[in-house]
Design goal:
The complex is a heterodimer of chains A (175) and B (188). Chain A is mainly alpha-helical and 175 residues long. Chain A contains five helices and two strands. Chain A has a domain of 119 residues: Trafficking protein particle complex subunit 3 (Muramoyl-pentapeptide Carboxypeptidase, domain 2, 2-Layer Sandwich). Chain B has a single domain, classed as 2-Layer Sandwich (Muramoyl-pentapeptide Carboxypeptidase, domain 2). A four-stranded antiparallel β-sheet of chain B has the order 1-2-4-3. In chain B, a hairpin with a 7-residue loop joins strand 1 and strand 2. Chain B is globular and about 45 Å long. In chain B, 33% of the residues are buried. The chains are: A mainly alpha (175), B alpha+beta (188). Chains A and B meet through helix 1, helix 2 and helix 3 of A and helix 1, helix 2 and helix 3 of B. Chain A: This is Trafficking protein particle complex subunit 6A. Chain A: Its main location: endoplasmic reticulum.
Protein backbone atom coordinates (compact mmCIF):
# COMPACT_ATOMS: atom_id res chain seq x y z
CA UNK A 1 0.00 0.00 0.00
CA UNK A 2 1.57 3.22 -1.10
CA UNK A 3 1.33 6.10 1.26
CA UNK A 4 -0.76 9.14 0.39
CA UNK A 5 2.18 11.49 0.78
CA UNK A 6 3.90 9.61 -1.98
CA UNK A 7 1.13 10.35 -4.44
CA UNK A 8 1.11 13.97 -3.47
CA UNK A 9 4.84 14.38 -4.06
CA UNK A 10 4.66 12.47 -7.31
CA UNK A 11 1.83 14.66 -8.50
CA UNK A 12 3.83 17.78 -7.75
CA UNK A 13 6.81 16.46 -9.65
CA UNK A 14 4.59 15.44 -12.49
CA UNK A 15 3.20 18.91 -12.88
CA UNK A 16 6.69 20.36 -12.72
CA UNK A 17 8.08 17.85 -15.19
CA UNK A 18 5.42 18.34 -17.82
CA UNK A 19 5.50 22.04 -17.31
CA UNK A 20 9.19 22.21 -17.90
CA UNK A 21 8.79 20.00 -20.89
CA UNK A 22 6.00 21.76 -22.71
CA UNK A 23 6.53 25.33 -21.75
CA UNK A 24 8.79 26.18 -24.65
CA UNK A 25 6.77 28.81 -26.47
CA UNK A 26 4.72 27.24 -29.20
CA UNK A 27 4.22 28.97 -32.53
CA UNK A 28 1.54 31.60 -32.84
CA UNK A 29 1.38 32.78 -29.28
CA UNK A 30 -1.29 35.43 -29.25
CA UNK A 31 -1.73 37.93 -26.51
CA UNK A 32 -5.49 37.78 -26.95
CA UNK A 33 -7.86 37.00 -24.14
CA UNK A 34 -7.98 33.37 -23.22
CA UNK A 35 -10.58 31.32 -21.46
CA UNK A 36 -10.74 31.25 -17.72
CA UNK A 37 -9.85 27.58 -17.69
CA UNK A 38 -6.13 27.95 -18.18
CA UNK A 39 -3.52 29.81 -16.27
CA UNK A 40 -3.64 33.46 -17.16
CA UNK A 41 -0.04 34.28 -16.56
CA UNK A 42 3.16 32.52 -17.43
CA UNK A 43 4.28 30.60 -14.36
CA UNK A 44 7.02 32.43 -12.56
CA UNK A 45 9.37 29.49 -12.56
CA UNK A 46 9.32 28.87 -16.27
CA UNK A 47 11.05 30.84 -18.92
CA UNK A 48 7.87 32.62 -19.95
CA UNK A 49 6.07 29.67 -21.51
CA UNK A 50 3.68 30.45 -24.35
CA UNK A 51 0.01 29.77 -24.00
CA UNK A 52 0.19 26.95 -26.50
CA UNK A 53 2.66 25.08 -24.36
CA UNK A 54 0.53 25.65 -21.31
CA UNK A 55 -2.65 24.45 -22.96
CA UNK A 56 -0.79 21.42 -24.11
CA UNK A 57 0.55 20.45 -20.71
CA UNK A 58 -2.85 20.99 -19.17
CA UNK A 59 -4.39 18.63 -21.68
CA UNK A 60 -1.54 16.18 -21.26
CA UNK A 61 -2.06 16.17 -17.50
CA UNK A 62 -5.77 15.80 -18.00
CA UNK A 63 -5.21 12.91 -20.38
CA UNK A 64 -3.00 11.16 -17.87
CA UNK A 65 -5.63 11.62 -15.20
CA UNK A 66 -8.16 10.15 -17.59
CA UNK A 67 -6.12 7.00 -18.09
CA UNK A 68 -5.63 6.57 -14.37
CA UNK A 69 -9.31 7.23 -13.68
CA UNK A 70 -10.29 4.62 -16.24
CA UNK A 71 -8.05 2.01 -14.68
CA UNK A 72 -9.27 2.86 -11.20
CA UNK A 73 -12.83 2.59 -12.46
CA UNK A 74 -12.12 -0.91 -13.69
CA UNK A 75 -10.96 -1.89 -10.23
CA UNK A 76 -13.95 -0.60 -8.36
CA UNK A 77 -15.87 -2.86 -6.03
CA UNK A 78 -18.30 -4.88 -8.08
CA UNK A 79 -21.49 -3.58 -6.55
CA UNK A 80 -20.79 -0.10 -7.85
CA UNK A 81 -21.26 -1.28 -11.40
CA UNK A 82 -24.94 -1.79 -10.70
CA UNK A 83 -25.62 1.93 -10.44
CA UNK A 84 -28.84 2.93 -12.09
CA UNK A 85 -29.01 6.64 -11.53
CA UNK A 86 -26.53 9.27 -12.56
CA UNK A 87 -26.90 10.79 -9.15
CA UNK A 88 -25.80 7.57 -7.48
CA UNK A 89 -22.67 7.59 -9.55
CA UNK A 90 -21.91 11.15 -8.62
CA UNK A 91 -22.53 10.37 -4.97
CA UNK A 92 -20.13 7.51 -5.30
CA UNK A 93 -17.47 9.82 -6.73
CA UNK A 94 -17.94 12.26 -3.89
CA UNK A 95 -17.78 9.62 -1.23
CA UNK A 96 -15.79 6.57 -2.15
CA UNK A 97 -13.52 7.74 -4.91
CA UNK A 98 -12.60 10.94 -3.13
CA UNK A 99 -11.87 9.05 0.07
CA UNK A 100 -9.72 6.59 -1.85
CA UNK A 101 -7.76 9.27 -3.60
CA UNK A 102 -7.65 12.10 -1.10
CA UNK A 103 -8.68 10.46 2.21
CA UNK A 104 -11.64 12.80 2.59
CA UNK A 105 -15.11 13.21 1.21
CA UNK A 106 -16.19 15.92 -1.18
CA UNK A 107 -17.71 18.77 0.77
CA UNK A 108 -20.75 19.46 -1.35
CA UNK A 109 -22.54 18.24 -4.44
CA UNK A 110 -25.00 20.44 -6.28
CA UNK A 111 -26.91 19.82 -9.47
CA UNK A 112 -29.35 21.59 -11.77
CA UNK A 113 -31.04 18.25 -12.59
CA UNK A 114 -30.14 18.69 -16.25
CA UNK A 115 -26.94 16.80 -16.11
CA UNK A 116 -24.70 19.48 -14.68
CA UNK A 117 -23.16 18.78 -11.33
CA UNK A 118 -20.97 20.93 -9.18
CA UNK A 119 -18.70 19.13 -6.78
CA UNK A 120 -17.05 21.35 -4.27
CA UNK A 121 -14.09 20.64 -2.08
CA UNK A 122 -13.33 23.32 0.45
CA UNK A 123 -9.85 22.13 1.22
CA UNK A 124 -8.51 20.35 -1.81
CA UNK A 125 -5.48 18.37 -0.65
CA UNK A 126 -3.30 19.15 -3.65
CA UNK A 127 -3.81 22.86 -3.09
CA UNK A 128 -3.82 22.96 0.65
CA UNK A 129 -0.07 23.18 0.95
CA UNK A 130 0.23 26.05 -1.46
CA UNK A 131 -1.56 28.97 0.09
CA UNK A 132 -4.85 30.08 1.44
CA UNK A 133 -6.17 33.11 -0.30
CA UNK A 134 -5.42 34.46 -3.71
CA UNK A 135 -1.66 34.40 -3.76
CA UNK A 136 -1.00 31.58 -6.21
CA UNK A 137 -4.32 31.64 -7.99
CA UNK A 138 -2.93 31.46 -11.48
CA UNK A 139 -0.86 28.40 -10.64
CA UNK A 140 -3.85 26.45 -9.41
CA UNK A 141 -5.19 25.11 -12.72
CA UNK A 142 -2.00 23.13 -13.18
CA UNK A 143 -2.77 21.22 -10.04
CA UNK A 144 -6.36 20.51 -10.99
CA UNK A 145 -5.99 19.20 -14.53
CA UNK A 146 -4.96 15.71 -13.48
CA UNK A 147 -7.87 15.42 -11.09
CA UNK A 148 -10.37 16.56 -13.73
CA UNK A 149 -9.11 13.79 -15.95
CA UNK A 150 -9.34 11.36 -13.07
CA UNK A 151 -13.05 12.08 -12.62
CA UNK A 152 -13.72 11.99 -16.35
CA UNK A 153 -11.93 8.67 -16.69
CA UNK A 154 -13.79 7.05 -13.83
CA UNK A 155 -17.10 8.28 -15.24
CA UNK A 156 -16.26 6.94 -18.66
CA UNK A 157 -15.59 3.50 -17.21
CA UNK A 158 -18.99 3.68 -15.58
CA UNK A 159 -20.49 4.48 -18.95
CA UNK A 160 -20.96 8.20 -18.65
CA UNK A 161 -19.46 10.67 -21.10
CA UNK A 162 -18.62 13.86 -19.37
CA UNK A 163 -16.81 17.12 -19.50
CA UNK A 164 -15.07 18.05 -16.30
CA UNK A 165 -13.74 21.51 -15.62
CA UNK A 166 -12.39 22.98 -12.45
CA UNK A 167 -12.35 26.47 -11.12
CA UNK A 168 -10.74 27.98 -8.11
CA UNK A 169 -12.06 31.14 -6.61
CA UNK A 170 -9.77 31.16 -3.64
CA UNK A 171 -7.27 28.56 -2.45
CA UNK A 172 -7.69 25.87 -1.23
CA UNK A 173 -11.35 25.73 -2.27
CA UNK A 174 -12.09 24.35 -5.69
CA UNK A 175 -15.11 23.36 -7.75
CA UNK B 1 -7.61 -11.23 -5.36
CA UNK B 2 -10.27 -11.69 -2.72
CA UNK B 3 -12.50 -8.71 -2.26
CA UNK B 4 -12.76 -7.61 1.32
CA UNK B 5 -16.07 -6.14 2.34
CA UNK B 6 -14.12 -3.80 4.52
CA UNK B 7 -14.25 -0.29 3.09
CA UNK B 8 -11.08 0.79 4.80
CA UNK B 9 -8.83 -1.71 3.08
CA UNK B 10 -10.64 -1.02 -0.14
CA UNK B 11 -9.73 2.60 -0.06
CA UNK B 12 -6.19 1.88 1.10
CA UNK B 13 -5.72 -0.50 -1.78
CA UNK B 14 -7.12 2.07 -4.12
CA UNK B 15 -4.77 4.78 -2.98
CA UNK B 16 -1.79 2.55 -3.62
CA UNK B 17 -3.15 1.66 -7.03
CA UNK B 18 -3.61 5.34 -7.64
CA UNK B 19 0.08 5.93 -7.06
CA UNK B 20 1.15 3.00 -9.18
CA UNK B 21 -1.14 3.91 -12.04
CA UNK B 22 -0.20 7.56 -11.89
CA UNK B 23 3.46 6.72 -12.09
CA UNK B 24 2.76 4.45 -15.02
CA UNK B 25 0.88 7.20 -16.81
CA UNK B 26 3.82 9.51 -16.29
CA UNK B 27 6.38 7.09 -17.70
CA UNK B 28 4.11 6.37 -20.65
CA UNK B 29 3.64 10.04 -21.31
CA UNK B 30 7.36 10.73 -21.24
CA UNK B 31 8.05 7.82 -23.55
CA UNK B 32 5.54 9.31 -25.94
CA UNK B 33 6.87 12.81 -25.64
CA UNK B 34 10.41 11.91 -26.46
CA UNK B 35 9.69 9.53 -29.24
CA UNK B 36 11.09 11.23 -32.28
CA UNK B 37 11.26 9.25 -35.47
CA UNK B 38 15.01 9.34 -35.36
CA UNK B 39 15.30 8.44 -31.73
CA UNK B 40 16.85 5.12 -31.05
CA UNK B 41 15.44 3.61 -27.93
CA UNK B 42 18.69 3.69 -26.08
CA UNK B 43 18.56 7.41 -26.38
CA UNK B 44 14.92 7.55 -25.37
CA UNK B 45 15.45 5.50 -22.28
CA UNK B 46 18.43 7.57 -21.37
CA UNK B 47 16.27 10.66 -21.49
CA UNK B 48 13.49 9.17 -19.45
CA UNK B 49 16.11 7.79 -17.13
CA UNK B 50 17.80 11.12 -16.71
CA UNK B 51 14.47 12.77 -16.10
CA UNK B 52 13.42 10.48 -13.32
CA UNK B 53 16.50 10.61 -11.18
CA UNK B 54 16.19 14.31 -10.45
CA UNK B 55 12.42 13.96 -10.09
CA UNK B 56 12.85 11.16 -7.62
CA UNK B 57 15.54 13.18 -5.94
CA UNK B 58 13.14 16.08 -5.44
CA UNK B 59 10.57 13.74 -3.97
CA UNK B 60 13.17 12.24 -1.64
CA UNK B 61 14.23 15.63 -0.41
CA UNK B 62 10.67 16.32 0.69
CA UNK B 63 9.78 12.82 1.71
CA UNK B 64 12.54 12.65 4.30
CA UNK B 65 10.90 15.40 6.33
CA UNK B 66 7.58 13.63 6.26
CA UNK B 67 9.37 10.43 7.20
CA UNK B 68 11.34 11.84 10.12
CA UNK B 69 8.26 13.58 11.46
CA UNK B 70 6.18 10.43 11.44
CA UNK B 71 8.61 7.67 12.27
CA UNK B 72 10.55 9.00 15.27
CA UNK B 73 13.73 7.52 13.89
CA UNK B 74 16.82 9.10 15.36
CA UNK B 75 20.19 9.61 13.78
CA UNK B 76 21.87 6.52 12.37
CA UNK B 77 25.36 5.76 13.57
CA UNK B 78 26.48 3.59 10.73
CA UNK B 79 25.45 2.47 7.29
CA UNK B 80 24.09 -0.82 8.58
CA UNK B 81 21.63 0.97 10.77
CA UNK B 82 20.66 3.14 7.82
CA UNK B 83 20.01 0.07 5.74
CA UNK B 84 17.74 -1.33 8.43
CA UNK B 85 15.74 1.85 8.70
CA UNK B 86 15.34 2.12 4.94
CA UNK B 87 14.16 -1.45 4.53
CA UNK B 88 12.13 -2.01 7.66
CA UNK B 89 10.64 1.40 8.33
CA UNK B 90 10.69 3.57 5.22
CA UNK B 91 9.75 1.03 2.57
CA UNK B 92 7.11 -0.37 4.88
CA UNK B 93 5.61 3.04 5.54
CA UNK B 94 5.47 4.27 1.99
CA UNK B 95 5.16 1.19 -0.16
CA UNK B 96 3.95 -1.41 2.28
CA UNK B 97 6.78 -3.83 1.56
CA UNK B 98 9.87 -4.87 3.46
CA UNK B 99 12.85 -5.55 1.24
CA UNK B 100 15.57 -7.83 2.52
CA UNK B 101 19.13 -6.61 2.95
CA UNK B 102 21.93 -8.74 1.52
CA UNK B 103 25.35 -8.70 -0.12
CA UNK B 104 27.20 -6.46 2.26
CA UNK B 105 30.58 -5.53 0.92
CA UNK B 106 33.47 -6.42 3.24
CA UNK B 107 34.03 -2.75 3.93
CA UNK B 108 30.42 -2.33 4.92
CA UNK B 109 29.82 0.52 2.52
CA UNK B 110 27.64 -1.31 0.03
CA UNK B 111 24.54 -3.45 0.32
CA UNK B 112 21.64 -4.65 -1.78
CA UNK B 113 17.93 -4.24 -1.21
CA UNK B 114 16.04 -7.21 -2.59
CA UNK B 115 12.42 -6.48 -3.43
CA UNK B 116 10.34 -9.59 -3.85
CA UNK B 117 7.63 -7.57 -5.46
CA UNK B 118 7.95 -4.02 -6.62
CA UNK B 119 4.66 -2.19 -6.13
CA UNK B 120 5.55 0.31 -8.85
CA UNK B 121 5.35 -2.33 -11.53
CA UNK B 122 2.03 -3.93 -10.58
CA UNK B 123 0.39 -3.45 -13.94
CA UNK B 124 3.42 -3.04 -16.13
CA UNK B 125 4.71 -4.90 -19.11
CA UNK B 126 7.79 -3.59 -20.80
CA UNK B 127 7.37 -3.62 -24.55
CA UNK B 128 10.31 -5.07 -26.43
CA UNK B 129 11.40 -1.75 -27.80
CA UNK B 130 11.93 -0.37 -24.32
CA UNK B 131 13.94 -3.23 -22.99
CA UNK B 132 16.61 -0.94 -21.63
CA UNK B 133 14.23 1.33 -19.78
CA UNK B 134 14.83 1.35 -16.05
CA UNK B 135 11.22 1.69 -15.14
CA UNK B 136 11.41 2.21 -11.41
CA UNK B 137 14.34 4.56 -11.54
CA UNK B 138 12.35 7.06 -9.54
CA UNK B 139 13.04 4.98 -6.44
CA UNK B 140 16.79 5.45 -6.78
CA UNK B 141 16.29 9.18 -6.98
CA UNK B 142 14.07 9.13 -3.92
CA UNK B 143 16.65 7.18 -1.92
CA UNK B 144 19.46 9.47 -2.99
CA UNK B 145 17.53 12.65 -2.25
CA UNK B 146 16.32 11.50 1.12
CA UNK B 147 19.73 10.32 2.33
CA UNK B 148 21.42 13.46 1.13
CA UNK B 149 19.20 15.41 3.50
CA UNK B 150 20.59 13.39 6.38
CA UNK B 151 24.19 14.06 5.32
CA UNK B 152 24.86 10.92 3.39
CA UNK B 153 25.97 10.88 -0.20
CA UNK B 154 24.96 7.55 -1.64
CA UNK B 155 24.62 5.98 -5.02
CA UNK B 156 21.58 3.83 -5.75
CA UNK B 157 21.05 1.82 -8.88
CA UNK B 158 19.06 -1.11 -10.14
CA UNK B 159 21.14 -4.18 -10.84
CA UNK B 160 18.27 -6.64 -11.22
CA UNK B 161 14.72 -5.99 -12.31
CA UNK B 162 11.79 -8.39 -12.48
CA UNK B 163 10.51 -6.45 -15.47
CA UNK B 164 13.54 -7.64 -17.38
CA UNK B 165 13.03 -11.23 -16.44
CA UNK B 166 15.21 -11.36 -13.33
CA UNK B 167 13.87 -13.33 -10.42
CA UNK B 168 13.93 -10.42 -8.02
CA UNK B 169 14.38 -6.68 -8.11
CA UNK B 170 17.67 -5.58 -6.60
CA UNK B 171 18.73 -2.05 -5.74
CA UNK B 172 22.43 -1.67 -5.02
CA UNK B 173 23.25 1.02 -2.49
CA UNK B 174 26.76 2.41 -2.17
CA UNK B 175 27.84 4.81 0.53
CA UNK B 176 30.08 7.48 -0.96
CA UNK B 177 30.82 9.89 1.85
CA UNK B 178 29.35 11.76 4.74
CA UNK B 179 28.36 15.30 3.86
CA UNK B 180 29.87 17.77 6.28
CA UNK B 181 27.63 20.44 7.68
CA UNK B 182 28.68 23.79 6.38
CA UNK B 183 28.66 26.00 9.40
CA UNK B 184 28.00 29.63 8.63
CA UNK B 185 31.14 31.72 8.97
CA UNK B 186 31.83 32.89 12.48
CA UNK B 187 30.06 30.04 14.22
CA UNK B 188 31.97 27.40 16.10
Amino acid sequence: MADAALFEFLHTEMVAELWAHHSDPGPGVSAGSRGGEEARAAPLGSAGGGSTGQKMSLSVLEGMGFRVGQALGERLPQETLAFREELDVLKFLCKDLWVAVFQKQMDSLRTNHQGTYVLQDNSFPLLIRMASGLQYLEEAPKFLAFTCGLLRGTLSTLGIKSLVTASVASLPTCE
Amino acid sequence: MSRQANRGTESKKMSSELFTLTYGALVTQLCKDYENDEDVNKQLDKIVFSHFLPRGYNIGVRLIEDFLARSNVGRCHDFRETADVIAKVAFKMYLGITPSITNWSPAGDEFSLILENNPLVDFVELPDNHSSLIYSNLLCGVLRGALEMVQMAVEAKFVQDTLKGDGVTEIRMRFIRRIEDNLPAGEE
